[in-house]
Write a structure and sequence with these properties.
By secondary structure, the protein is mostly helical. It has helices at about 30-70, 70-105, 110-165, and strands spanning about 10-15, 15-25. It is about 70% helix and about 10% strand.
Length: about 190
């Protein structure tokens, strides 16, 4: 009972893993092109996101040096740049989520050769995703280091301020060198 119209599963072995490929009908060139375009766009967005996280990590590392050297102007510049990069990361992520959803919705491709091409691209995307996760973890770690250093610096500044407040304040006119008695002779 062989029927090409019914949905069957074709088991294929790729890189030692058994993959289940749903086979329904031959895929048209248009559908294949759409799927490949979505895949390429998805991959491109992931690469952009990875680049932004690398840039963010570099800014955080430079900011750490500025915190240590107590260069307030550079700390402010790094904070402004950091906000800009975070905004870009957020914007890219808003585009990645629907593209990934759209890609996952299409599922596996119909023909064996196109499946292998897409599978290779998916492996590249998985590598990019793992790089992204590693970078995100590094960014969070570096951000925590910077926060801790700023807290220590602020605590030191607060201590200095409290010491200044508790020091006895002298008036400009309160000097021991001025005389206290005035001798008036006419």
């Amino acid at each position: 009972m062989k029927n090409n119209d019914t949905i069957s599963k074709n088991i294929t072995q790729i890189n030692g893993k058994v993959q289940s490929i749903p086979v329904s009908r031959p895929m048209s060139e248009t559908e294949l092109s759409e799927r490949i375009l979505i895949l390429k766009r998805f991959k491109s967005l992931l690469e952009q996101q990875r680049a932004r996280f690398q840039q963010y990590l570099q800014v955080l590392e430079a900011q750490e040096k500025s915190i240590v050297t107590e260069d307030v102007d550079k700390i402010v510049q790094h904070s402004e740049l950091e906000q800009s990069i975070i905004s870009e990361i957020s914007t890219i992520q808003k585009v990645i989520d629907p593209i990934e959803s759209m890609y996952r919705q299409f599922g596996a491709v119909g023909s064996h050769s196109s499946f292998i091409e897409v599978h290779r691209s998916e492996q590249e995307m998985e590598k990019i995703k793992s790089d992204l996760q590693r970078l995100q973890a590094s960014v969070l770690h570096q951000n925590q280091i910077n926060r801790d250093k700023i807290k220590v610096h602020l605590a030191g500044l607060r201590k200095q301020i409290s010491l200044l407040k508790t020091m006895p304040q002298r008036s400009v006119f309160d000097s021991s060198e001025t005389s206290s008695l005035i001798d008036i002779r006419v």
